[in-house]
Design the sequence.
């Protein structure tokens, strides 16, 4: 029986992963800053990752075979102060490097890092998708911090017995999701006319349960060692199609007006909402075919089933 330690076990992805691993023959050890309500697994304390990076604290990895690192600051806001930016990198980069060093000392066999497809960039051209062997091209501080986290992990593991696996997912959704995706669910339920019928982009996503299933497979799969794994549901859909599916699943009418995307982009840019335009109107495709073939993996949930689960579970 392998001992699997998970940072961020109380977070959005971490909770799904703990639930998924409870179905297998593993001893799960949540690494958390405080006990997870309702979780019966014995936990170990995880200090603040910035403190860990600064050498002010340590973490107990004794007896751990596999370390899955999900804890991170998951986004960077526009116009961060320099202090906020330094904290982002201290947590995401310094914290990962410190955990990798502790894993080497403790004799951990494999370190799985949950990274992000934003390491590859922010948008894809029509008919193209990000691949694991593409040059990294992060365009914001969050994407850059995840790239540097990957690099710090790999460089720390060189010359040691520590195996590394890096997983890059796009947008993750599922039961408990909040933020913009939850707002989109609420908006689509109202059945209001929306000027998105002319949007024919393609965006990759991954259901949190599909991501947890992939992590569970990759954490001890022989072929995953040393790999960067691109992750997605395997079905890319447009923003207009996503809204239509969300509306139908909630029994709401679909009212999409065909306004050219170029007009919407210009209008949102004039309103200072370029970030919203990028998320709604641009394409962001991830090629996960290589991951599925390498690990012989099929996402257990289809998009419609995963969307239905998301709708029925409040944040």
Sequence:
């Amino acid at each position: 029986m392998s001992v699997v330690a998970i940072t961020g076990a109380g977070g959005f992805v971490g909770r799904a992963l703990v639930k998924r691993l409870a179905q297998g023959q593993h001893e799960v050890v949540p690494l958390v800053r405080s006990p997870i309500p309702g979780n019966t697994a014995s936990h170990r304390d995880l200090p603040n990752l910035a403190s860990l990076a600064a050498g002010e604290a340590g973490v107990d990895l004794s007896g751990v075979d596999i370390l899955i690192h999900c804890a991170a600051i998951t986004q960077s806001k526009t116009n961060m102060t320099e202090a906020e930016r330094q904290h982002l990198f201290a947590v995401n980069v310094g914290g990962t490097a410190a955990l990798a060093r502790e894993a080497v000392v403790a004799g951990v066999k494999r370190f799985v890092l949950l990274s992000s497809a934003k390491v590859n960039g922010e948008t894809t051209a029509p008919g193209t998708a990000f691949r694991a062997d593409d040059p990294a091209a992060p365009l914001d501080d969050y994407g850059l911090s995840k790239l540097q986290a990957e690099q710090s992990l790999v460089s720390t593991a060189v010359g040691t017995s520590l195996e590394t696996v890096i997983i890059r997912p796009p947008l993750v959704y599922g039961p408990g999701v909040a933020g913009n995706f939850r707002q989109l669910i609420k908006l689509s339920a109202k059945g209001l006319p929306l000027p998105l019928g002319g949007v024919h982009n393609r965006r990759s996503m991954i259901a949190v349960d599909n991501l947890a299933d992939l992590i569970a497979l990759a954490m001890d799969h022989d072929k995953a060692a040393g790999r960067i794994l691109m992750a997605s549901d395997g079905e890319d859909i447009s923003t207009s199609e996503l809204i239509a599916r969300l509306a139908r699943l909630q029994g709401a009418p679909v009212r999409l007006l065909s306004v050219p995307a170029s007009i919407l982009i210009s209008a949102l840019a004039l309103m200072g909402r370029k970030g919203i335009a990028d998320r709604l109107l641009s394409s962001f495709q991830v090629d996960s075919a290589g991951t599925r073939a390498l690990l012989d993996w099929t996402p257990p949930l289809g998009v419609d089933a995963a969307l239905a689960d998301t709708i029925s579970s409040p944040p």
The beta strands are 2-7, 26-32, 44-45, 66-69, 110-114, 163-168, 171-173, 205-207, 227-230. The chain has two domains: 2-175+206-235+285-300, 179-200+238-281.
